[in-house]
Amino acid sequence: MTNPGPSKTAVVILNYNGAHWLQAFLAVVVEHSRDWASVWVADNGSTDSSKEQVNAFPEVHWLDLGQNYGFAEGYNRAIAHIQAEYIVLLNSDVEIKSPWLEPLLEFMESNPDYAACQPKIKAQLEPSHFEYAGASGGFIDAVGFPYCRGRVFYTTEKDEGQYDSRMDIHWASGCCLLIRRKAYIQVGGLDGDFFAHMEEIDLCWRLLSSNYQIAAIPESVVYHVGGGTLSQGSPKKTYLNVRNNLLMLAKNMPASRLAWIIPFRLVLDGIGSLRFLKEKGGFRHILAVVEGHWAFYFRLSTTLKKRKNIAQKKADFLSPFLLVQRYFLMGQKTFAQLHPTKKID
Question: What pLDDT, on the 0 to 100 scale, is given for residue 293?
Fold first, then answer.
């Protein structure tokens, strides 16, 4: 493709006390992006040496947000400031290898109906396997549980090229997400009330409800460390995932389905939390699930008001099965088992 030039695309790394990640990965991001995009570090009020790390790269733009707004509102404020047709949301703990931007931009330039896309995301610490938070594209089951092409609940697959084709997906991972700025603004951006976790799934749901499409472009590959801000075993992460998943459903699910799905999900979450009894510190996670439920109730009235700002609530794209049934009762632990007849273009 003809290079659209760095002024058309901005790679935006949201940072909070991530100097060690900037030291590890920023140089490679700059090296493999400078001909295709400007690079920005939007800082959420860090108190470490992040700015000193960025100062080593004169071509990198430093945007001081002043305080920690979290992932969602931090990106909203950064994107309001940055004027570019395409924005790449990139976690600071992502390792880039070339080429990575070219396939994503080529696809978006050729497909104006698509609002966003993501690369194939592999585990930086175990590069033979997909990474938990994104893999080769995200999906949502009938009652709102997210999963990936390459990761279903606790099963992360080895990458053997089985998901190397482009595919329409339900959501793209926020660890590396290319989006049209116009579409981002049109649907209201990330929901700042989420703070962090599942905010990109909520955003993508609103994009699909606005008749945009989203794709996985596995010719582009990045490597994500994961847990750079909150580790996978953090009770705070459990709390945010439970609360935000329910908030996402309350915002986006059609009313006819929402009335029974919310009570059903609350029961499933309660049953599912019992698995933490087998883990060290499991009671803290069970408490986090309970707190996530109560926080959802507390925010429910405000969240339901947000439905007015969503032109239509669509659920026809959701996978027509219960993931918990398929995974735990039927033993279907890979994407290919869940979607044996899924057409891959």
Answer: 92
